[in-house]
Amino acid sequence: MTEINYAAMDDQELKRYMLTHRNDQTAFYTYMDRRHSRPSNTVIEPNDPAWEEKLVAAIEAQMGHDR
Using one digit for the tens of pLDDT, what is the confidence trace for 37-63? Predict the structure, then answer.
C-alpha cells in the first residue's frame, strides 16, 4: 500500500482528497488540525452595532470574495 504524504498537499488538495476518501481518518484529522491551528482574524464584540456587517465581511473573505 502506498503511503500518503498529507504534508505535501496544499489545503485544497487535502480537502479534495479527504472528501473523496471519507474513511481516511488520518486525512480528516490532518485537515482539521490545519484548520484549527490558524489564528482567527475576526473578532466581533457582542455589543458592536456593526457586528452583522463584520460577520458578512468575514464570511466573504473566507469564501475568497472581495467587497
Answer: 877 666 788 889 998 888 888 888 878
At residue 7's C-alpha, the angle toward residues 41 and 58, to 5°, is 20
Tell whether the torsion through CA atoms of 9, 56, 40 and 26 is positive or negative: negative
d(CA 41, CA 47): 18
- Calculate the alpha carbon distances from 20 to 15, 51, 58, 67 in Å: 9, 36, 28, 32
CA 23/CA 3 separation, integer angstroms: 15
Full-prediction pTM beyond 0.90? no
Three cell numbers written together for 6: 498529507
